[in-house]
Sequence to fold (318 residues):
Amino acid sequence: MTREILAAGTVCWRRVSDAGSDTNQLMVLLIHRTKQGDVSFPKGKLDPGESMPQAAVRETREETGLKVSLGVNLGTIQYSIGDTATKTVQYWAAEVTPERALASTFTPNGEVQALEWVAANEARARLSYKADRKLFDVFLRLASHDLLDTFSVTLLRHAKAEPRSPLSPADHLRPLTTLGDEQAEMLVPTLAAFGPRRLHTSTALRCVETITPLAEHLGRRVREHTALSQDHWDEGDLADMRRLIGKVVKRGKSTILCSHRPVLPDLARELVLATGSVPGPYLEEATSLPPAGFSVFHLSRSRPGAGILGVETYPIKH
Fold:
C-alpha cells in the first residue's frame, strides 16, 4: 500500500521595469536545489498539524527568505516516489513586492543552492519536471489574461458557541465554548497565509471572539457590522450587506467576513452579483460550513468584473 505525502509551495512572481521602457516585465522565481541538482519552485512537506496554505508560506520563507501571502490557487501536481509513496503538492501564485524582495534573507545552503528570477516566457523551459511545467501553464494562462494580481474575500463561520438555552444570555451575547476558543486560535496561521488586510465581523459576541486572535496576531483592527449579524439578516433587509460587499470588492484588499451559517449563502450571492460571476453549485459547497470553517474567494484586483477566479474551502479540523 502506497502512502501519500502532502506538500505545498508557491510560484512567486514580480513585475520589473524594463530599462528605457514604460512596460513591466513579469518575472518568476526558480530555485536550484543542491542535492537534487534540479530547477523547481519553492515547496516542501507539511509539518504535523499544518494546513496546506500554512506550509506553502512557511516553506517559501525557509527556502527563499521571502515572506509572501498566497494569491490564487494554481492546483495540485502528483507524482510517485519509488514504489512506496505518492507525493501531492498544492501550489499558489504569490506576488513578491519590491519591499519583500529587498528583505529576503536567502543565502545558499544545503537544500537550495541558488535563486533565479527569470522572465516568465523563459521559465517553463528551465523547469526540470513535466509536472511543474503543466502547473506553470496554469500560471501563464492567468498572466495572459492579466489575472495574476488578485485579492481574496474569505467567508468565515464563527467557531463553536455556547448553545441556546432558557438560562443563556441573549443570542447575540452567546460566547464561544472552550472548543470554540481553541478553534479560533487554530484558524490564525491558515487565515494569515492569505494576507488579510481588513477584518469584518458580525456584532455577535461569538463572531467577535472568533476573529479576535487573528486580529491580535496581525495587529489589525476588527470592524463590527450589523449587516453581518444573524439578527439583521432575520429582518430580511439585505441592502446593508450589499453595500458592504460592494465596498469590499471596490477596495480590492484581501478581507475576511466573519458571520453565521444562515447568512453565508447570501454573502456569497452578493459577492457573485458584485463581480458578475456565474452562480452554481459551488456556492452551496463554499457556504455549507461547520463551525470555524471558511471559504476563500479569489478575485482580480484590476478586473474584479472578471468574476470569481477560484474558491478554496477549509472545514477546520479539531
User: Anything to note?
Assistant: The longest strand covers residues 3-17.
